[in-house]
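Q: Start with the shorter request: fold the first protein.
A: Done. Sequence, then structure:
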Amino acid sequence: MKHIEILDAEGNVTNVIVADEAFAQQQHPGAWRVAAVQPVREPAPVLRRITRLAFLSRFADSEAVAIDLASIGATAQAAGMRRYMSKVNAATFIDLDRADTRAGVQALEAAAMLPAGRALQILDAPVQPSEEYRG
């Protein structure tokens, strides 16, 4: 399939269609040409959406325990941790490229809930087929 320019009697382009040459000739005999420049199709964006279970599984057990322990109590830090986890648990899926997802995991590292460098490992590891959200 190509972009075909449909021409008027003076040779001016009146329309552009996507078709093969046989169709163009059948529908517009002698009044068409293949467009000189074919549009470049942008690749579809790669969605990095994973299930909640897959997201939580990206944390080591020791990291998950540290996060859970930090959520206990009546401090602002504990309430913030509970709020973050309630968002994770309420989500339909986790978008690893979403700004608030990235900020939340990086905040866990900044609060020493995760070792240095772990936030990017969790966020940027390739999405495995078993992790993909297929909703």
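Q: Next, the second protein, separately.
A: Sequence, then structure:
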Amino acid sequence: MKHIILILILTASVAAQGKKKAEPDTVILKGAPMGGVKFTHKVHVDRAANKCETCHHASKPQKANTAPQQACRDCHTPTAAAPMKTKLQAAFHNPTAQAGNCITCHKTENAKGKKAPVKCMECHKKDNV
């Protein structure tokens, strides 16, 4: 009987680990001096054809992921701290916002005729708290 209970507990534990964490509907990225960035996660997931790795890169040797998709802030901090080499802002775009994960994708979407913000204040807003 003890073996059956142990097997049931282990099976439930493995099943729970295999489930993806539910993503939030809206994400607000805070901490930028120009204001927070608010976006609908579902829109980005749909545009990326449900490919999470479009935004959430794979684990790097400097710091292993603790989950398949993590918040950028889990590893990237406002000032890069060892072993990380990329600070938080640079995880989204370069200092002039001309290239990077977010802005490059937005420019690509616009080139396809879709509307995506490319000006700083279209994403960064002081009232996004």
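Q: Describe the second briefly.
A: Confidence is low (pLDDT under 50) at residues 1-19. The beta strands are 26-29, 36-40, 124-125.
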